Amino acid sequence: MDWGLKNRLSRVIKSDGKTVMLAVDHGYFLGPTSGLEDAGRTIGPLLPHADALMPARGILRTSVDASTDTPIVLRVSGGNSVLDEDLSFEGITVSMEDAVRMNVAAVALSIYVGSPNQKETLLNLAKLVDEGQRYGIPVLAVTAVGKSMGRDARYLSLACRIAAELGAHFVKTYYCDGFEKVVRTCPVPIVMAGGKKLPEAEALELTYNAIKRGAAGVDMGRNIFQAESPVAMIQAVKAVVHDKSSPKQAFHLYQSLKAAEKSPKRPRLKGVTASRAELNRH
Ligand code: R5P
Description:
With 282 residues, the chain is α/β, with parallel strands linked by helices.
């Protein structure tokens, strides 16, 4: 792996080998997803807590502060919409030149193994890997699951392994029974996809199980930004991923951070402000 590519990947997957990526790319085929209608407003407070942010190019340019230190994993595939019967007809939507211009840490595209468009999406992955190698940009393959495709260890191992064989530098896939087999047979790091919104305690349990079975972290969207307190939730997820917290400890952390957010701020009576307050009182 070239130095630049290694350096970019190390910005996403931290020195403990783990990452909490915040997925906000939903709109590329779902339009205004619940919680992301005003994407900038949702992303702003979460951005400093995320190890990496995964948006599509339009949201990055319109709704993410360009002075951020948070590395960007840019969604570069699309062309489909939720109105399609078959979601697999995706192509590459962003040139590597534009990805470089946006100073991204990695690019991401979906592959649809076993779908009518399997070949096209796998060839797109191979093409992106060639370009990524040329420019030093790692590629994340997202193993998309179509309406008719399975979500079991057999299918996900197949999809993840194919992605790695074609050169993906890391892979995003779903949690399943036998997840350890999916991890064991894939020679590159796997980040777990969040999936549909669950109660917070269950999402933390899911995260814990994935980490315990070898995931390099999560790339989670709805379970964070649709939580009752998104900022508390991302910190609880980080506690599981980076600090080995149990689901119970992490849920406790979530609840206390959420409660602290809601409790009215006590007046600050320190330093200059304190003496002015004191003066005003007398
Ligand atoms: C899936 O292919 C896309 O990347 C999604 O838009 C996103 O990653 C989903 O995240 P979550 O399922 O955690 O909301």
